[in-house]
């Protein structure tokens, strides 16, 4: 079972390696004295490689340093598996190089569809690198920025009043009133909920957990929030049936502590500042490059209806279309009707 999992993981890793490697790989020459029997030439950058050689493909060498560099491209969730099975990672690198060499040998790199995809990928990589430099590496949010925002906007970090609620739900008022009498006589609420309630919460003694306003229907909310901890409501009717509600805990409205929101707040501020920077960047580029959009070409206006055209009166059939004055000989022949029964 473990072996199958490892194979599945490396199938995913191989895809990553293939995508990463093809971006940097060079098209191999398939002729000349330097080419090996595999069609893979000696790597022209071999002189600059360092580290111990772990594999050879013809005249090309793969070093331990290359394996370690490739390891960095493996997604984080696969890192532990890849570290424990470097031999399989190396096999994936070898497979990638062999497949790339064979695809190049068969001139797939000259295929128009492949060239378009490579061009699109190149554009995406350039844009990504540019935006990283102009936005990710430039826009920062400090702890001081977050603290100042928090102090100036504490109202935005309010946590509403909450109550911990249990209830018993039945179909008719008479049964609900009978249960209420038992509760006032000292019966256990949770036990009656498990026995009588039709709500799925019956399995937990009717407990619904912590609720804030806006999470239940108005009739239920009004009755529940009027109770103090330990109190039980009268019978409450809603669209779902007849409820008896008990509140066991009440948490007043509070402002969340800065330390509890700091990380989320910094991320929110960073996203806002990055968006502002991105919008300003695009505006500057558009202004400097004098962008003009011809909307009438993109979406041609629809022809307006002639206001002088006669409209048929209600209840009056529209006039039959006029017969064409074009000679019959110049009209296209109607298609022959399909024969039946064949």
Biggest sheet: strands, sense, closure? 4 strands, antiparallel
In order across it, which strands form the biggest sheet?
5-4-7-6
Low-confidence stretches: 21-38, 319-342
Number of strands: 8
Proportion of helical residues: 40-55%
Report Rg: 37 Å
Order of helices and strands: HEEHHHHHEEHHEHEEEHH
How many helix segments?
Answer: 11
Kindly report the average pLDDT value.
Answer: 82
User: Globular, elongated, flat, extended or rod-shaped: what is the shape?
Assistant: extended
Strand content: 5-15%
The assigned structural class equals alpha+beta
Straight-line N-to-C gap:
60 Å
Structure description:
This protein is extended. The model is unreliable at 21-38 and 319-342 (pLDDT under 50). The strands form 3 sheets. It has a 4-stranded antiparallel β-sheet with strand order 5-4-7-6. Strands 1-2 form a two-stranded antiparallel sheet. Strands 3-8 form a two-stranded antiparallel sheet. It has helices spanning 2-24, 64-71, 79-84, 86-105, 112-136, 143-152, 173-184, 189-196, 218-225, 258-288, 295-298, and strands at 53-57, 60-63, 158-159, 162-170, 207-212, 236-238, 241-251, 254-255. Helix 1 (2-24) crosses helix 4 and helix 5 packs across helix 10 (258-288). The chain has 11 helices and 8 strands. Among the domains are: 2-108, no CATH class; 161-252, Chitinase A, domain 3 (Roll), CATH 3.10.50. Strand 1 (53-57) and strand 2 form a beta hairpin.
Give a short synopsis of this structure:
The chain is of the alpha+beta class and 342 residues long. Among the domains are: 2-108, no CATH class; 161-252, Roll (Chitinase A, domain 3), CATH 3.10.50.40.
């Amino acid at each position: 079972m473990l072996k199958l999992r490892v194979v599945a993981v490396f199938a995913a890793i191989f895809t990553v390696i293939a995508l990463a490697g093809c971006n940097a790989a060079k098209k191999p020459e398939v002729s000349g004295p330097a080419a090996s029997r595999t069609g893979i030439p000696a790597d022209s950058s071999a002189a600059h490689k360092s580290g111990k050689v772990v594999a050879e493909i013809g005249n090309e060498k793969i070093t331990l340093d290359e394996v370690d560099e490739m390891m960095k491209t493996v997604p984080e969730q696969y890192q532990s598996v890849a570290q424990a099975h470097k031999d399989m990672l190396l096999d994936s690198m070898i497979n990638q190089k062999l497949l790339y060499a064979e695809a190049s040998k068969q001139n797939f790199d000259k295929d128009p569809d492949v060239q378009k995809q490579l061009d699109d990928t190149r554009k995406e990589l350039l844009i990504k690198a540019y935006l990283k430099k102009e936005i990710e590496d430039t826009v920062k949010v400090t702890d001081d920025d977050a603290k100042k925002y928090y102090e100036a906007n504490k109202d935005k970090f309010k946590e509403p009043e909450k109550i911990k609620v249990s209830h018993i739900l039945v179909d008719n008022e008479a049964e609900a009133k009978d249960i209420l009498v038992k509760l006032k006589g000292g019966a256990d609420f949770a036990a009656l909920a498990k026995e009588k309630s039709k709500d799925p919460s019956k399995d937990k003694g009717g407990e619904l957990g912590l609720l804030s306003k806006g999470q239940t229907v108005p009739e239920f909310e009004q009755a529940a929030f009027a109770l103090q901890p330990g109190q039980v409501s009268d019978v409450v009717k809603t669209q779902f049936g007849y409820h008896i509600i008990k509140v066991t805990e009440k948490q007043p409205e509070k402002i969340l502590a800065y330390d509890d929101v700091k990380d989320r707040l910094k991320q929110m501020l960073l996203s806002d500042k990055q968006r502002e920077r991105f919008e300003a960047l695009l505006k500057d580029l558009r202004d400097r490059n004098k962008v003009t959009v011809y909307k009438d070409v993109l979406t041609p206006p629809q022809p307006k209806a002639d206001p002088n055209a006669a409209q048929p009166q209600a209840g009056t059939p529209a006039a039959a279309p006029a017969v064409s004055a074009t000679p019959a000989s110049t009209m296209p022949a109607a298609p022959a009707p399909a024969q039946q029964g064949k």
